[in-house]
Amino acid sequence: MKRAIIFGATGGIGQAIAKRLAKSGWSLYLHCNSNWNEAENLATSLMDQYPSQDFLPIKLNFLAEDEELLAFVKGLLPVNAVVFAQGITNYDFLGRQSSEIIDRIIKVNLENPIKLTKMLEDQLLKHDHSRIVYLGSVYGGQGSAMEAVYSATKGGISRFAQAYAREVASSRFTVNVVAPGAVNTAMNAMFSAEALDELAEEIPAGHLAKPKEIAYWVDCLLNPESDYLTGQTIYVTGGWLE
């Protein structure tokens, strides 16, 4: 059985991960926070290409409280891989961010992924070669001005993964982080084309990452042959910043 849940499957990186894992034979839960039509369309497209696998859209508000999270987990068919590709940011000075915005970023990027990990642990431990992959960020290693809270959550998920991996490693249950640099997705739509061109010039590889270049590493980590790699943050940045 190869079934994974991709949280944030309708985002730019999430969709690329879904397409890559489907090609590798995974059945998938395709999570969305609010974009249900996108999740349904992605599921239909993948089912057309891979009719022997299951692709199920599923919805959960990542600001949910514990009871809703637990009900969500109890409603899942068994999974042996979890990919946390959801994430939000707010590009502004800390002094101008409200407590509500700060709480939202922490809950979506760090608090609820940790809680869901705890809730999913029992079923993951029942399978050989279970996997968790979190999408981190280069800013988890090199904090970004104007994204201080976001940087803190991404640094936090790397340290959490490092520690938690040691708790479950003997069960061939690996926990890792793929930390992209600048990726050509809608999250960067706030910046002008000129600003993105200038950013690309700072990156030794010469361009922003394509989402599929991130999805490749998630697929590698889900492979059964990657049992010995755990607790790591893999920076996929084109040589930038890290």
Automatic annotation (TrEMBL):
Superkingdom of the organism of origin: Bacteria
Stated family: Belongs to the short-chain dehydrogenases/reductases (SDR) family.
Listed GO biological process terms: monocarboxylic acid metabolic process
PANTHER family membership: 3-OXOACYL-(ACYL-CARRIER-PROTEIN) REDUCTASE (PTHR42879), 3-OXOACYL-[ACYL-CARRIER-PROTEIN] REDUCTASE FABG (PTHR42879:SF2)
Any single Pfam family the record assigns to this protein: adh_short
UniProt-listed InterPro entries: NAD(P)-bd_dom_sf (IPR036291), Sc_DH/Rdtase_CS (IPR020904), SDR (IPR050259), SDR_fam (IPR002347)
Protein name (Swiss-Prot/TrEMBL): SDR family NAD(P)-dependent oxidoreductase
PROSITE patterns per UniProt: ADH_SHORT (PS00061)
Species name: Lactobacillus porci
